[in-house]
Design brief:
The complex is a heterodimer of chains A (about 230) and B (about 140). Chain A has about 230 residues and is of the alpha+beta class. Chain A has 8 helices and 6 strands. Chain A has a 6-stranded antiparallel beta sheet. In chain A, helix 1 packs antiparallel against helix 8. Chain B is α/β, with parallel strands linked by helices and about 140 residues long. The longest helix of chain B has 11 residues. The chains are: A alpha+beta (about 230), B alpha/beta (about 140). At the A-B interface, helix 3, helix 5, helix 6 and helix 7 of A face strand 4, helix 2 and strand 5 of B.
């Protein structure tokens, strides 16, 4: 099996499957969608956010609701049921969609995303910029057209924003090299998404980190080793 | 293990038992200039008797990232990852546009708003939280 920073479609799907397993455990809302001919697919999640920045979804995207404990609420609650934590009379709800696809040309995962108001109006790139976390603004603003671009979704054929993948392998290498000394079962997708997600409003609950570490020398870790072995045989 | 000189990120630890040296003592390098953000302020007032306001963090460099001469820090629980990132970047004199990531379990980057106190509860052991940090360019 290809190691380290580059991997094939099958490995990508394996990591996504493991990731989604944990997502289901904690109700984080990620799903796998296969393409029409099922040869490939992607991982996706939708969440809703009030435009003034208060997250009202139940996927733990807001820092102050993000905890170590599993989420109990179901994904995509009906709008009637959402609780607005602040009184915002002119608040607008924005729907964010995040898709994780595999890039054959770069041999790394790629984060596609789009945002729209509930009436279907898409958010402009400028609004996306405003949503970028402070941490990343400086870097992204230096060359926004290098880092977030608009492209056609390879499977859906609709316009999405994309975090450019050309540096992915570069920044994943030191992390993987370092972590694989301790734990061979590091989930590339978990690690990668934890790093790039926050830049576009996607925060992973902490329990993903623990899920990965539980595979260290643990009995349960054998399952993924077995899965990996069978992948290697392909 | 031989403790490296401990420095205080925020306020001087008054009741923290392991602080044998005065908190304001500088590490063997030049005293880090604290960022003007709320992340770091040289010690002034410290509530006496609040033993658990701060947690110990051990910072480890990954890859080619410069190694901090002072690796062990006492940090207020409410400090966010973003605050810590800003601090390390200033300490290492990185330019603002360079990206720095912090990891728990060596592979997972907590979101920037995560508080270190929470991370300590989840991932700390032996009385400290080990965080790895790595300089990189995530995009472009």
């Amino acid at each position: 099996m290809e190691e380290d920073e580059f991997f094939g479609e099958k490995t990508f799907q394996h990591y996504c499957a493991e990731f989604i397993k944990h997502s289901q455990k904690i109700g984080d809302g990620w799903e796998w969608r296969a393409s029409k001919d099922c040869s490939d697919g992607y991982m996706c999640k939708t969440h809703f956010q009030v435009k003034n920045g208060t997250a009202m979804s139940h996927q733990g995207t807001s820092a102050h609701v993000q905890t170590f404990l599993p989420m109990e609420e179901a994904v995509d609650p009906p709008l009637d049921d959402f609780e607005v934590t602040e009184t915002t009379t002119a608040a607008e709800v924005i729907k964010y969609e995040y898709h994780v696809l595999y890039s054959c040309s770069y041999q790394v995962p790629v984060l596609y995303f789009r945002a729209s108001f509930l009436d279907g109006r898409p958010l402009a790139l400028k609004d996306i910029w405003e949503g970028v976390h402070e941490c990343y603004k400086m870097r992204l603003l230096q060359g926004p057209w290098d880092t977030i671009t608009q492209q056609e979704h390879p499977i859906l054929g609709q316009p999405f924003f994309v975090l450019h993948p050309c540096k992915t392998s570069e920044f994943m290498i030191p992390v993987l090299k370092n972590s694989q000394k301790i734990n061979r079962n590091v989930n590339y997708i978990t690690s990668w998404l934890s790093m790039v997600g926050p830049a576009v409003g996607l925060n992973l609950p902490l329990s993903y980190a623990t899920a990965a570490s539980q595979e260290e020398g643990n009995v349960s870790g054998q399952d993924s080793s077995i899965e990996r072995k069978s992948l290697e045989e392909h | 293990m031989a403790e490296e000189q401990e420095s205080t990120l925020l306020l001087p630890p008054s009741a923290a038992p392991e602080a044998e040296v005065p908190a304001e003592v500088s590490p063997e390098t030049a005293t880090p200039e604290p960022p003007s953000s709320a992340a770091v302020s040289p010690g002034t007032e410290e509530p006496v008797g609040d033993t658990k306001k701060k947690i110990d963090i051990l910072l480890k460099a990954v890859g080619d990232t410069p190694i901090m001469k002072t690796k062990k820090w006492a940090v207020e629980r409410t400090r966010t990852i973003q605050g810590l990132i800003d601090f390390i970047k200033k300490f290492l004199k990185l330019v603002a546009s360079e990206q720095l990531f912090i990891y728990v379990n060596q592979s997972f980057a907590p979101s920037p708003d995560q508080e270190v106190g929470t991370l300590y509860e989840c991932f700390g052991s032996d009385g400290k939280l080990v965080l790895h940090y790595c300089k990189s360019q995530a995009w472009g």
